[in-house]
Structures are given as structure tokens and as C-alpha cells.
Amino acid sequence: MGGSTVGDAAATIFDALVSETETALKDVVSDLQTHVVPTMAMLARSLATIGLDRADYVITEDMANIEVRMAIRAAASVIVGFANETLLGIERIINAVLGAIKQVVNTAVGVAVL
After folding, report:
1. Among candidate residues 10, 13, 12, 23, the one with its CA nearest the CA of residue 91
2. Is 1 a member of any domain?
3. Of 10, 15, 24, 72, whose CB neighbour count within 10 A is largest?
4. Which residues span the domain enclosing 29?
């Protein structure tokens, strides 16, 4: 097996996982707090305002429905963007782990198998 051990192989794969996770997901919490939480707070305020305007007959039911859909779509676009970025980070982590597995297997057998 080329002198490597299961422990060495596992360490190589784990190191790739940790390293890429730290890189790919380092801004997730910050982005969540910076973009998603304020967006949800803004959505809550918008929905409350729309509800109060409707209750006070400032806007019609049709206008309220349109404004609610617009507010939800705006918030959803921010959340979907955040989710897409997070998924891309996860994809980078998986690719790094697969690369490490490839390296370990090819080193173990002494030829490029993967």
C-alpha cells in the first residue's frame, strides 16, 4: 500500500474537508446576519404596514394582495441567493474531499486509478 496507513489516508481526507469548509463557508454566518435577517425584518415590517393600511382602508384588498406578493418575492430573492451561495460552498467542499480521496487511492495503488 505504498507505505501509507489508513490513519494517513483519513487525515489527508479530513484535512481537505476542514480546509475547504473553512474557506467555502467562512462568511455564511456573517452573510446570514448581514442580508437574510434584515431582509426578514423588513418583510415583517412590510407585511405589518400592508395589514394596517388595509385595515384602515388606505389600500384596497387587491392592492394589499399585490404588495404582499411583491414583498415576499423580494425577500425570497435574497434568501434564494444566500442559499445558492451556501450550496456552491458545499459543492466546493465535496469536490475537495473527492480530490483528496482520489489522491489517497492513487498514492495507495501507485498508479492513477481515479
Report:
1. 23
2. no
3. 24
4. 6-102
Cell representation of residue 48 = 405589518
Q: What is the pTM of this model?
A: 0.73
Tens digit of each residue's pLDDT, the chain (114 residues): 455 688 999 999 999 999 999 998 988 999 999 999 999 999 999 999 999 999 999 999 999 999 999 999 999 999 999 999 999 999 999 999 999 999 999 988 888 877
For the chain, the domain total comes to 1
Grid coordinates representing 23 are: 474557506
Residues near 42 by Cβ (< 8 Å), separated by ≥ 6? 75
Report yes or no on 18 lying in a domain: yes
Nearest alpha carbon to residue 25 among 82, 81, 86, 78? 86
Calculate ∠ Cα 79-16-93, nearest 5°: 20
- Is residue 109 situated within a structural domain? no
The CA distance from 19 to 11, in Å, is 12
